[in-house]
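Design request, tokens follow.
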């Protein structure tokens, strides 16, 4: 029997700020080249968890492994060099540079013409390759930053609310191109938009008050009574 070794593994990960526990004993495995979502109400600890994975925040207790390497106390720069790329909620691009120039600046190594074309096609920016980033509408700036993260050729791509501020059509297009990344890179997405999460068809973990209350396919999550209670505000 073939055993799939998790690319990213969290074991009893916790983070406290003084007496406040933002994340408590989170354990989860993210397999190679899978799509994953982390959902939960505001204040559930989603961004805090992502910050610990990418090294922006230190882990109070527990462990995070990337392959067989412990990264829980590692600097963000070193984690990025290992192959974990992060896109934050608010787009952060180089406004005076073109789309292509943004990709080249972000790339860990020189991008070939084919690699560049593939990223442009993936994030729906082929026709905007020479457009200055400042001239792009908000939705395409979001796509540009996802493309910049992909230009680092990561093994793990962390996305914090990639559909924030997007139209319905842009959100649908984002889901479509993220699904094309299955089998290419491990993607972990934080989201609030349930229609987007449903469309993504990803393994989904639910956080509430910093704890995992459910984990599984979106179909299982959607039919979970506790998850329904949390999102309806009954708990």
């Amino acid at each position: 029997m073939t055993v799939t070794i998790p690319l990213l593994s969290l074991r009893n990960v916790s983070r406290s700020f003084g007496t406040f526990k933002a994340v408590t004993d989170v354990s989860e495995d993210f397999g190679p080249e899978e799509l994953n979502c982390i959902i939960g109400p505001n204040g559930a600890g989603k961004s805090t968890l992502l910050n610990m994975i990418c090294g922006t925040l230190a882990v109070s207790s527990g462990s995070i492994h990337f392959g067989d390497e412990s990264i829980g106390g590692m600097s963000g720069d070193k984690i990025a060099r290992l192959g974990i790329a992060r896109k934050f909620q608010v787009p952060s691009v180089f406004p005076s540079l073109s789309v292509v120039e943004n990709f080249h600046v972000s790339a860990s190594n020189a991008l070939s013409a084919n690699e560049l074309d593939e990223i442009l096609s993936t994030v729906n920016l082929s026709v905007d390759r020479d457009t200055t980033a400042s001239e792009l509408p908000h939705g395409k700036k979001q796509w540009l930053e996802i493309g910049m993260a992909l230009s680092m050729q990561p093994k793990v791509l962390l996305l914090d609310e990639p559909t924030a501020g997007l139209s319905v059509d842009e959100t649908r297009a984002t889901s479509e191109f993220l699904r094309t990344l299955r089998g290419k890179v491990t993607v972990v997405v934080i989201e609030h938009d349930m229609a987007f999460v449903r469309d993504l068809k990803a393994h989904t973990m639910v956080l509430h008050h910093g704890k995992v209350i459910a984990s599984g396919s979106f179909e299982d999550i959607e039919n979970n009574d506790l998850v329904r209670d949390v999102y309806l505000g009954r708990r």
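Comment from the thread starter after seeing the answer: thanks! Residues 1-83+187-235 form a domain with the Rossmann fold fold (CATH 3.40.50.300).
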